[in-house]
Structure formats: C-alpha cells, structure tokens
Design brief:
Length: 113
C-alpha cells in the first residue's frame, strides 16, 4: 500500500526536495487519482529522464484529464513502448523475402559495328 510519505520519499529520490507547493499539489493528485497511480507515474517519469516538477505535473494532469486508473496507465505505457524487444515468431515465411526471388536482369549485348 502506497502512502503519502512513500510518495514524497520517491519524489524526493527522483526529483529532489519537495517544496510546500509541490507537496500540496501531490496531495491533491493523490486524492483525485489514488496513491498507487501517483507513485507509478513518479517512477515512470523518473525513468524517462524527467528532472523537474513540470514534467511530472504534466503527466499527472494528463492522467487526471483522461480519468485513468493504474491498469489503464500501465496499458498506455505498454502501448507507447510498442512492445519493444518482443519476439515475433511466424510459423510460415511471409513470402516477402527478396533473396528467395532473386531475378537476374537480362544482360544487353552491345552491337558490333
């Protein structure tokens, strides 16, 4: 269970000292979105390279605008990632291998004069 103290701790580990304004803003986001989602957004934005409050605030505001819960947020993150490093196995070849259909162009012979 994520609490406000753990959220503040994870924020300060990722972004630095939380000012009173940031603490109040985080508190309002926790009330509207839930502590688990706010904690996950902090974690994801920190991993993405966010270093300042406006970056995190924009992500939290987007979640609030879309009415997301934790499952919807994780699904969107997976969708954005695009399934990177996911192996795709095809049982049969697709038929678009250009090396299998190597066609050699007919050579033109120069006419002798």
């Amino acid at each position: 269970m994520t609490t406000m103290t753990t959220i503040l701790k994870s924020y300060e580990e990722a972004y630095g000292t939380a000012t009173p304004v940031i603490r109040r803003s985080l508190g309002s986001y926790v009330e509207s979105l839930g502590p688990e989602l706010v904690g996950k957004v902090i974690e994801v934005t920190a991993q993405a390279g966010g270093q300042k409050w406006p970056y995190l605030s924009k992500s939290l505001e987007e979640c609030k605008r879309k009415g997301m819960d934790l499952a919807a947020y994780e699904a969107e993150q997976f969708r954005r990632k695009g399934g990177c490093n996911a192996r795709v196995d095809r049982p049969t070849p697709s038929g678009t291998d250009i090396l299998d259909r190597l066609v050699r162009r007919q050579l033109r012979v120069k006419k002798e004069e």
